[in-house]
Amino acid sequence: MAHAPLSPSAAERWMACPGSRQAEAEAPPAIPSTFAELGTYAHELFAFGLRHGLTAEALTTDPAIRQPLALALTAMREILGTRTFMVETRLPALAGLPMVWGTADVIGFSLPGPVDTIADLKFGEAILVEADTVQLAIYALLAAHCYGAAENGVTAWTIQPRCDHANPPTPPPLSR
Fold this sequence. Notes:
Elements: H1 11-16, H2 19-26, H3 34-52, H4 56-59, H5 63-80, E1 84-91, E2 102-109, E3 115-121, H6 134-147, E4 155-159
Parallel strand pairs: 3-4
Antiparallel strand pairs: 1-2, 2-3
């Protein structure tokens, strides 16, 4: 899968250190870690499960993945309720910013249709990630540009089932 030259997932780094992009481009290709491979696999299962309404038990027999995947699917379904959503959606760059684009894990829509939710699955367990990241702000901006923003704006969610958060997600009321 191609990544944006200025990817949202690395935005905190390239915004703080603009030279990091060039340094990364000149570095030898990184060998994927087992952690990255697990995260990619978890994202695939998460997206497939959401698209097809499947449980974690129907997606994998691996207990190391099944329990956190079940938590992630449940949390995302509670957040979305009955609203329409898209998964693994490539969001194009804005005019004038051709190097900034990305793929959102989940985009939720209020009725009749503008974006009101952006969610990102983080499957790591060592580094706590909160929802107020630059990455999610970029995804919200790109999604709002493509599909419009809900009257109350776009809410960002980080779904991180293998890490304890001081303030775990609380789904919005279903009356949205």
